[in-house]
């Protein structure tokens, strides 16, 4: 076959890539240097104005980013700990093993938005069953309208919804571990706890890092839970970066500025995940 | 120190994996368990290690019940036929692993690990990852890990079986030297193998196993010279001892109308009747005078030639100490060295051997 013809076969894929990835990114970059909004639509070039505004005059974005970091790191940490515990529980032969494996996956099979509506109803401060029950003990927590508790509620719903995904990844990892090191460890004098610390955890480190990064990427895009559960409130107590960009772009129609926000967010995320992956590798693989 | 097994039995399915196993093993000795695949060797070693619980019977070490001690608290070390190590650790960390579990001091761990690595010829490899080692080196790491523990019982489950021929030969010599110096002096060393040559080279005591039972327990020399049954003679010889039916009568041995010869002197007193005779391949060669056989197959192995011979219903394997070529079906004259002939009863038990005379 002629060498040049090989590129012909690559063309359909390249065209799709160009259409769905390269063009939108290129357009967003160009958009971020424009003042396009609902009053003045168009790609008027305004240089770095949007970026200067973002870095000098928009604390709300950086607060939202700090909140996002807190929510995503906390939820993924909890998902990892709970998911790993559940996976370890059904990894070995236990009674009703298959039943529990399916049971733990059920939250992931539900529709996130619908389940968030259910959770919102559950935590409704005057009509919800949570407070209905707690009122028996004289408590009426403000699940959705307290600055601190609303963050806890968002974390709880996210952990409930996505721990099964973590569980699934970690269980698959556990099931693929070689059996031989366990034979060696038992002969070498390691009891169950030491076997976990010195064999299971280190062997699971690469899989754990992958699972954590996948979940962090997902968690950093947190939008639907916040949108349905609290709409970013009370005030901006649960407002995250993506929700803030959504407000700027699709509620206030500041397309140029929201493009600058999106690109800055993208760059920060790429740098953050690279650093997190390196730290995790150092801690989990080399450390163990 | 002694390890006593009394009536160990294990029957997880239709077949016994261990069938009434009894033995006494002493400190400073090498015990080689030899048997075919699925004869129960690995099951027995795993039972001693505590990885498998027997249905009945017990193990006593130094007068104390050994069977009820959990596996991680038993004073045993084990090397498996697969190269079992910790893939995420370095060579040094692998060897140090059992000592860390015991809470040994860092300085002592270092000394013992370096000593064990030097014993198995892996000095300078301590910071390498396991995956960066060859199969033979990985098995040396596993051996070092078992030696460093200085366990009372050292179990080696066919440790050379997954290595190539050259490496197997080399490691066999090295293992023997290691066992004969340090390891076996302080511990009971139990080695399992399917290879009769390996078992004989290691020396010590041999336990011949088949279908979960111990068929014979004796020194390597005794098992070689006086295998107590046809099964043992098959298991402990490579190629398996040639067995053929025949009669003893009027001072002669009659295998067929064409193959008759005088009884050897060590058969003196053997009652007339039907026997199964045994002759090792090395005692069957070609000669000017002998019996007519046809070549079924000739195999060159190193500097020797194995001949698969046939005469009517008699099939034999002979050995020539030179490389020779033959065509299939070629007629040859075969000479028996009858001074090495064994006689077994028709139920398989040894009746006369060249080394022990009548049994």
Q: Helix proportion of residues of chain A, in percent?
A: over 70%
In the CATH scheme, the class of the largest domain in chain B would be: Alpha Beta
Beta-strand share of residues of chain A: under 5%
Mean pLDDT rating of chain B: 90
- The number of E-state strands of chain B comes to 21
Description:
The complex is a heterodimer of chains A (288) and B (359). With 288 residues, chain A is mainly alpha-helical. Chain A has one domain: MetI-like fold (Orthogonal Bundle), CATH 1.10.3720.10. Chain A has helices at 5-32, 49-57, 59-91, 97-103, 106-109, 112-122, 129-134, 147-175, 180-187, 192-220, 224-229, 241-251, 255-286. In chain A, helix 1 (5-32) packs across helix 13 (255-286), helix 3 (59-91) runs antiparallel to helix 10 and helix 12 runs antiparallel to helix 13 (255-286). The model of chain A has no long low-confidence stretch (mean pLDDT 91). With 359 residues, chain B is α+β, with helices and mostly antiparallel strands. Chain B folds into two domains: 2-228, 3-Layer(aba) Sandwich (Rossmann fold), CATH 3.40.50; 239-358, OB fold (Dihydrolipoamide Acetyltransferase, E2P), CATH 2.40.50.140. In chain B, strands 13-12-11-14-19-20-21 form a seven-stranded antiparallel sheet. In chain B, helix 2 packs across helix 3 (106-119) and helix 3 (106-119) crosses helix 4. The mean pLDDT of chain B is 90.
């Amino acid at each position: 076959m002629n060498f040049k013809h090989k590129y012909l076969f690559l063309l359909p894929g390249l065209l799709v890539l160009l259409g769905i990835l390269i063009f939108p990114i290129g357009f967003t970059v160009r958009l971020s240097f424009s003042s396009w909004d609902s009053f003045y639509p168009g790609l008027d070039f305004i240089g770095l104005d949007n970026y200067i505004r973002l870095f000098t005059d928009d604390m709300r974005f950086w607060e939202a980013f700090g909140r996002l970091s807190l929510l995503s790191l906390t939820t993924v940490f909890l998902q990892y700990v709970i998911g790993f515990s559940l996976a370890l529980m059904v990894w070995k032969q236990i009674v009703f093993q298959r039943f529990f494996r399916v049971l733990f996956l059920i939250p992931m099979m539900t529709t996130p938005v619908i389940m968030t509506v259910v959770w919102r109803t559950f935590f409704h401060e005057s009509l919800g069953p949570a407070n209905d029950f707690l009122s028996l003990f004289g408590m009426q927590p403000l699940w959705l309208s307290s600055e601190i508790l609303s963050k806890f509620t968002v974390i709880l719903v996210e952990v409930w919804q996505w721990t099964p995904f973590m569980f699934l990844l970690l269980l698959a990892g556990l099931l693929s571990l070689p059996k031989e090191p366990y034979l060696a460890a038992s002969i070498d004098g390691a009891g169950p706890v030491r076997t976990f610390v010195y064999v299971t955890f280190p062997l699971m480190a690469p899989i754990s890092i992958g699972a954590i990064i996948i979940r962090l990427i997902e968690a950093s895009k947190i939008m639907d839970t916040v949108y349905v559960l609290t709409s970013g409130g009370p005030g901006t107590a649960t407002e995250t970066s993506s929700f803030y960009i959504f407000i700027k772009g699709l509620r206030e129609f500041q397309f140029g500025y929201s493009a600058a926000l999106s690109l800055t967010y993208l760059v920060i995320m790429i740098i953050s995940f690279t650093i997190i992956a390196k730290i995790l590798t150092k801690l989990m693989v080399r450390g163990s | 120190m002694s390890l006593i097994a009394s009536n160990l039995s294990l029957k997880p399915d239709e077949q016994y994996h261990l069938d009434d196993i009894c033995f006494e093993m002493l400190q400073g000795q090498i015990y080689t368990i030899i048997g075919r695949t699925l004869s129960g060797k690995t099951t027995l070693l795993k039972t001693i290690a505590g990885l498998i619980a027997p249905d009945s019977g017990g193990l006593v070490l130094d007068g104390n019940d050994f069977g009820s001690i959990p596996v991680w608290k038993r004073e045993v070390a084990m090397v498996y036929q697969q190269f079992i190590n910790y893939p995420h650790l370095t060579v040094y960390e692998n060897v140090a692993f059992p000592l860390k579990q015991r809470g040994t001091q860092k300085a002592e761990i270092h000394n013992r690990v370096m000593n064990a690595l030097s014993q198995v010829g892996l000095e300078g490899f301590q910071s390498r990852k396991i995956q960066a080692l060859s199969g033979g080196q990985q098995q040396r790491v596993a051996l070092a890990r078992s030696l460093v523990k200085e366990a009372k019982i050292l179990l080696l489950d066919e440790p050379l079986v997954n290595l190539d021929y050259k490496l197997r030969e080399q490691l066999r010599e090295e293992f023997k030297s290691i066992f004969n110096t340090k390891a076996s002096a302080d511990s009971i060393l139990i080695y399992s193998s399917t290879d009769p040559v390996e078992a004989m080279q290691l020396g010590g005591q041999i336990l011949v196993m088949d279908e979960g039972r111990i068929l014979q327990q004796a020194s390597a020399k005794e098992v070689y010279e006086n295998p107590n049954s046809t099964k043992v003679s098959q298991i402990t010889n490579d190629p398996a001892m040639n067995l053929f039916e025949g009669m003893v009568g009027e001072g002669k041995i009659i295998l067929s109308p064409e193959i008759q010869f005088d009884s050897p002197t060590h058969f003196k007193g053997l009652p007339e009747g039907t026997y199964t005779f045994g002759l090792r391949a090395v005692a069957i060669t070609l000669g000017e005078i002998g019996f007519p056989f046809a070549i079924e197959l000739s195999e060159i192995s190193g500097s020797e030639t194995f001949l698969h011979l046939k005469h009517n219903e008699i099939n034999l394997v002979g050995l020539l100490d030179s490389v020779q070529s033959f065509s299939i079906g070629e007629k040859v004259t075969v000479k028996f060295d009858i001074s090495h002939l064994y006689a077994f009863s028709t139920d398989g038990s040894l009746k006369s051997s060249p080394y022990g005379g009548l049994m």
